[in-house]
Amino acid sequence: MKKKPATLPRGYRTCTASLAVADVPAALAFYQTAFGAEIRTCDSDQQPGFASIKIGTSMLFVTAGWSAYGHQPAGFGAASPVAHHMYVEDVDAVLEAATAAGATVISAAEDTYWGERCATVADPFGHLWTLATRLENLTSEAIEERRNAWLGLSQDDPAGAALDAAAAAD
What we know:
four-stranded mixed β-sheet
């Protein structure tokens, strides 16, 4: 009797993001150059329509899309409802590599109130990537306190009047 394969392929987790792109070979080259991606599997060496890649410890699919299931490339400049939050050793170095490879900076690198240094780029295929390096480990209370200070909220009214005033100004 043939042994049933494991539910998860080796190296994968329960959920794996699948990025639909207009040009799979160009996307693979970009992810290799910008993020050090390793191509694990590919459906064709000549003109791939699907590949699985590994970035750090994460697996991703890169595909031309599956139109029968509504999975289509967003195209450059289109807003993506999904962004990837990728932890890296050095945000500034990865940001430099990504922009040199063709990414567009959405937000420059900055230290955040939640204890990370973050920058966001759009890759040439319409996907958003927030690059992050942990600077410090904070409790939820410390993050909330810093958030409130960043938003200009008082301790007496942590969610109310200042947010209402900001919404009314928009």
